[in-house]
Amino acid sequence: MSTESAKFYFVAADGANSENRSKFGPPTLPYVESLQKALDRTASGEDPCVEVIALEIAEFIALLEQLPEASQEALQNCVVWPYYRSRPDEENHDVFSNLPDSFPEGSVINDARNPNVSLGDKWRDYQLAEKGGIPIPETVEISDISEIDDGFSFDYPIVIKGHPSGRGIDVHLCETATEAKQAFQSCIQKGLKVVAQEYIETSHGRDLRILVVDGKIVLTLGREAAPGKFHSNVSGGGQYIENPILNEEDLGIIQKVIDTFPVDVGGIDFLYGPDGLVFTEINWAPGWSGLAEGLTDFLANLIQQRLKLAKKVEGL
Question: Do residues 92 and 13 lie in contact, with contact meaning Cβ atoms separated by under 8 Å?
């Protein structure tokens, strides 16, 4: 490892009043510790010494304000990851979708300046997926409760999803229009956008999570809900199923999603449809606690690669 120094900013980009923060706590600390160890462990003799720094969104905004006008040089020795631990406030999301061009190419992980990086906009993800020929559940965006009374082209039960959101908290399985209206109101009260979606019965309580780093599959896991539950999210009581069986058609669909969405780090979720895998969403800030420790090595290598994209100069 060289004596040159660089910084990796792990920015917790939640909404300021996120209900998820009190429920789940700030997960960045164990991630910071594991990433720091991985960076120290995997660095070659020519790689800079990278310090992992966790910041809240307000601290990152303050850092941006302190940058000199000629910030290109100041930013060439840092990498930033806006880690959306839960639903972001719109203004916080805008901080990253409108970062100045002075951030060098590749210096932002899951760079929201790219229009194909939605950071939680499920409706946009479904539109991009459908355009790319990727199988998705039939989905419509709803902005008014009267649209539920009008009905959908798919039958009940249906799924109502609020977005941007995570951990399955704002995903509701609805047996009737009354339940759909209640779910819609719950999402709207949280300031979320809403989609209604076809229920894939063959995938009830189970799905497939593909972890991707730098556009490459690093881990494939099945997930299964607790008995009697609908949500398979591990944070909600589900469990991982190792080594799920995938055929060539499945792998082709997975690769199509990776080719469509510029995923630097993310979890891609699929349902098990009657005719094969069905894309359901991208989690741009996946958790990996309890998974293979080697995952952090993949991320450490990605950070080092991104630092090499820019000319190495004096860091922040």
Answer: yes
What 3-state DSSP class applies to 209?
strand
What are the pLDDT digits (tens) for 116-157? 887 777 888 899 999 999 999 999 999 999 999 888 999 999
CA 284/CA 300 separation, integer angstroms? 17
CA distance 76 to 85: 26
* Residues shown for the chain: 316
Q: Which of 123, 120, 159, 170 is nearest to 19 (CA)?
A: 170
pLDDT of residue 20: 42
Which pair of structure tokens corresponds to residue 302?
Answer: 């990605």
Domains of the chain by range and CATH?
5-110+291-309 (3.40.50), 138-199 (3.30.1490.20), 200-284 (3.30.470.20)
Residue by residue, DSSP assigns 284-314 as SS---TTS-TTHHHHHHHHHHHHHHHS----
φ/ψ of 89, rounded to 5, equals -65, 150
Q: How far apart are CA 242 and CA 92, in angstroms?
A: 36
Q: How many Cα atoms occupy the beta-carbon half-sphere of 64 within 13 Å?
A: 17
Look at residues 188, 5, 14 and name the one whose alpha carbon lies nearest to residue 86: 14
CA distances from 7 to 80, 128, 222 (A): 8, 33, 34
Per DSSP, the three-state class of 215 is coil
Separation CA 316–CA 314 (nearest Å): 7
Beta bridge partners, 197, equal 139, 159
Q: Is the overall model pTM greater than 0.90, yes or no? A: no
